[in-house]
# Entry
Amino acid sequence: MKKVFIRTMGCQMNVYDSLRILDILNNLGYEETEAYEDSDLILVNTCHIREKASEKVFSELGRYSKLKEDKPDLIIVVTGCVVQAEGEDFLERAPFVDIALGPQNYHHLPEKLELIGRKLKKQVIEADFPVQTKFDFLPSPGSRTYSSYLAIQEGCDRFCSYCVVPYTRGAEYSRPAKDIIKEAEIMTTSGVKEITLLGQNVNAWHGIGTNGEPWRLEDLINRLADIPNLLRIRFITSYPSDMTSELLNCFTSQKKLMPYLHLPVQSGSDKILRAMNRRYTSSEYLDIIFKLRDLCPEIAISSDFIVGFPGEEDKDFEQTLDLVNKVDFASSFSFKYSPRPGTPGAAMKGQIPEEIKSSRLDVLQSLLQRQQERFNYNCIGKVLPVLLEHEGKKTGQLCGRSPYLQNVNLEADKKLLGEIIPVKITGANLNSLRGEQAI
Ligand code: SAH
Ligand code: SF4
Ligand code: F3S
# Structure
């Protein structure tokens, strides 16, 4: 077997894509290795969302290019959003890369490898948005862990003024329901118990259902829940304006849908939300949260925040803190605004100095961390159903996830991997819970 080393950066969609690429490579006789020095092929799946993410790609590639000096037959493949954003310039910046493929082109990897293997080409790049979707050409998914991602929607038409995703992933596209159901069934046959449905704007998913009727996300979730071995369903990432009441109701009516919602708000200031081209106000966001808490009081709410967007004054930032205090988040991701070339935000007046961004981020993150810690501490003494996913670092330790997506560590027999067992929570910190098997 030839060996492939895969390095994945960026979001869950890239994690999913990397596994689909591994499915392709498995069919070509490659097996995965954890050591890049031993590999015949290195695949770097890249992210362009913030400047730092993008820069990291080139510093990592530097390391792999050194290895190629000693191993001239080593093939270096780069996929993902940086390739899409840079286009032809990418190969000039990284002349040692053999194959560069955008996020909608990776199903063409076998034919590109053939070109490089037979030395018909020195370098190849493909970074466009083909009419036919890659999903029609991918092999069946191979084995997955007990919890797996499944892309149901890709691309975005929202054009938030800071964001590169509409340019790197293309227009919004919903996969057909029957293809999603088939993929979920294949996954569960190979042992998957939990599926997280993925999309850049996942709650905009729509399609024709198996009954011939138009379906929205809640219909798809309910249909997937009929798969007997599928025990848990999640979806990520949702856009606030697409949180319909039918979808909110699904959190009470569908027991397999986990009580966790990631709903990025970005800012608590209506002025900044408008400038970001987010199409909701802070009070509309709060309405969704309060409605959801009424329906499902235990729900864990998570979010994304950007501080230091152009024009953000102290009072705008205060409004973000205010919103955070009103919601009480169970977890979150927060970032300093990073101007991205080609997006409207980068050209806006009122760019915020780096020091102000940093100090606002510190204040916001310490508030959010206190909330997350409190959420975790409040679980102590409770018995939570935990899906045991893998062995821990310590011998005898297993790691799993609570319904609220918290990491839970406990001692248990590894025969229980893949099962959902009741766990009494005995301890908590910012990033995980400890517990013991409750019988
Ligand atoms: N589709 C999702 C998010 C995609 S990107 C949504 O609409 O919410 C993930 C997160 O990265 C975003 O929620 C945002 O908080 C952050 N992000 C995106 N572009 C950014 C930029 N230019 N600077 C800083 N953070 C950014
Ligand atoms: Fe980016 Fe906005 Fe689309 Fe999310 S909704 S992917 S933040 S443009
Ligand atoms: Fe990054 Fe592309 Fe995902 S820019 S966040 S890998 S969609």
The chain has three domains: 2-126, 134-377, 383-437.
